[in-house]
Specification:
alpha/beta, Rossmann fold, globular, six-stranded parallel β-sheet, eight-stranded mixed β-sheet, 2 domains, 14 helices, binds ligand PMT
């Protein structure tokens, strides 16, 4: 279903353009043909020669090239592919896509295409967070453009934050999933349902350079989001800071603190399914100072205040409450008993209890041993990989939505 598919890869001008070479390799390994349009700015970072060598095809650069137009015009170029991918997608090209500006071959092809479009944004964190970029992304998403990433990390400019282009393997996986899904009959049980999943730790600022956190890696929450998306749910993953790549086919909202996480979940509503797998900090520092706390001989006193409880909040919405709200309970003793108390206190429908004592390796590890507690009682699951916990939980969710009494 993937073999023989054709991708038109548009490479815009950002330092992440060097990753497009690896992306081409990853796609060719999957037997997907790649044809490139290289913008003028993109050609400052990668050469047409290396792209031509890797794609074994001509590289298109010029809107007004007589030879290009006679061989393959921009309309044909944009329609010949099965999928158009912009990677890296700079702030500039995203703004042009939103506005419908067609002032070079890449933007003209994007305006002329009738094929699905994926973009992998790459830019400085402040450019990404700018209201203009966020607005452009929101409009493009509404129009059906799919966004892959960006991810958090060190940037070429020396800053740290959200804006790094997703890794080539993540982008290739999203493209592969697109082709696999497009070739499938619509038999997925969660098509038409929307899910919100929280994952990872939260970082609560002590001052501008220090924070309170915990050992959550995000593996469990990310695996659940992936499994729900694979079953056809439109899935929003609200993730605290992790080292994991964004799962393909999932909309990822990156957040830092519990307050940010609550706001992102609220913005993603309404939803049918909510799974709160994040290890949210119960407390934050009251009014963290804007300047770094100085070490001056006396110990600073940190005044803690309680964070909002996201799970309780989403469980207790009066109007349009999600049909199924699932929490996790991380315990180190009397796991099931404490989890049952949490289920009652927070008002969620099910709670997935796990032992997070250090010797279990649950935090950060690849396996999990869980107990699923619902109105039906307690199910003890064997030790499974976190991916399998995600899939098994998704099957249970599908069964519940088909027969809500379960
Ligand atoms: O990320 P991994 O390394 O893969 O590890 C997975 C995990 C151990 C983090 C995961 O399986 C897990 O147990 N997540 C819940 C961790 C947690 O914070 O549990 P809790 O018992 O403190 O909280 C109970 C529930 O309330 C959880 O669903 C939590 O997301 C939610 N909560 C807690 C506090 C808060 N302020 N808001 C919340 O939504």
């Amino acid at each position: 279903m993937v073999s023989g598919k054709r991708v038109l890869l548009i490479i815009a001008g950002g330092i992440a353009a060097f990753k497009s070479l690896e992306l081409i390799r990853n796609l060719r390994r999957r037997d997907i043909a790649v044809r490139c349009i290289l913008t003028q700015a993109g050609s400052q970072f990668v050469t047409p020669l290396s792209l031509a060598a890797l794609t074994e095809d001509k590289v298109y650069q010029d809107l007004f090239s007589l030879t290009d137009e006679s061989e393959m015009g921009h309309i044909e170029l944009s329609r010949d592919a099965d999928l158009v991918v912009v990677a890296p997608a700079t702030a500039n090209i995203l703004a042009k896509m939103r506005a419908g500006i067609a002032d070079d071959l890449a933007t003209t092809a994007l305006l002329a295409t009738d094929k699905p479009v994926y973009v992998a944004p790459a830019m400085n964190v402040r450019m990404w967070e700018h209201a203009a970029s966020q607005d452009n992304i929101a409009v493009l998403q509404e129009r059906g453009v799919k966004i892959i990433g960006p991810e958090e990390g060190d940037m070429a400019c020396g800053e740290y934050g959200l804006g790094r282009m997703s890794e080539p393997e993540t982008i290739a996986e999203a493209i592969e999933n697109f082709f696999l899904e497009a070739g499938q009959p619509n038999t997925k049980s969660l098509i038409g349902k929307k899910a919100i999943v929280t994952s990872g730790p939260t970082h609560e600022a002590i001052d501008p350079v220090r924070y309170l956190a915990n050992h959550s890696s995000g593996r469990q929450g990310h695996a659940i989001a992936k499994a729900l998306a694979a079953e056809g749910a439109e899935t929003v993953l609200v993730s605290g800071p992790t080292q994991l790549p964004d799962p393909g086919g999932v909309t990822v909202k990156h957040v830092q603190s519990a307050e940010d996480m609550l706001a992102a979940c609220q913005a993603a509503l309404p939803a049918d399914i909510v799974v709160c797998a994040a290890a949210v900090a119960d407390w934050r520092i009251d009014n963290p100072p804007l300047e770094k706390i100085k070490k001056n001989g006396s110990l600073p006193s940190l005044n803690l205040v309680e964070n909002p409880d996201i799970l309780a909040h989403l469980s207790q919405i009066d109007k349009n409450r999600p049909e199924l709200v699932i929490g996790f309970a991380a315990e180190t003793e009397d796991v099931v008993t404490y989890a049952q108390a949490k289920l009652a206190k927070k008002g969620c429908d099910w709670i997935v209890a796990n032992d997070v004592s250090p010797e279990t390796g649950t935090f950060g590890g690849t396996n999990n041993t869980v107990h699923v507690i619902s109105g039906d009682g307690v199910e003890d699951w064997p030790t499974l990989s976190k991916e399998d916990v995600g899939r098994k939980l998704t099957t249970r969710i599908v069964n519940f939505l088909e027969t809500p009494s379960k």
